[in-house]
Design a protein that fits this description.
single chain; about 100 residues; little secondary structure; 3-stranded antiparallel β-sheet; 1 helix
Length: about 100
């Protein structure tokens, strides 16, 4: 996560909370104009290099990009994965985001 080492990133504690991380990332994202170069919600089925070395996602209708970031980190909304047979489990089920202590 290169943003963590950006000179302007200053955490209030050794392990910042979700909101602090998101605030810092969004500030850098806007500062460098990345908001105009970013696409969200695109289902990726294929990635390849164009003839000029840039990146194509699925096909050129999505555009051609300088880079790709696969972001599956801890700052998104928690999602519970589907597990076959989970409905038969009689115990309590927790998402890791609900764990405390």
């Amino acid at each position: 996560m290169i943003y963590r080492f950006h000179p302007s990133v200053k955490w209030d504690r050794g392990y910042p909370k979700r909101d602090e991380i998101i605030e810092q990332v969004e500030e850098l994202w806007h500062r460098y104009g990345l908001d105009k170069k970013t696409k969200f919600g695109v289902e990726v089925t294929h990635i390849y290099n164009s003839t000029d070395g840039r990146w194509v996602i699925n096909d050129t209708s999505n555009g051609v990009f300088e880079g790709i970031i696969a972001a599956v980190g801890t700052c998104g909304e928690p999602r519970m994965p589907h597990m076959p047979g989970v409905e038969k489990f009689s115990g309590e089920i927790y998402h890791s985001s609900q764990l405390r202590g």
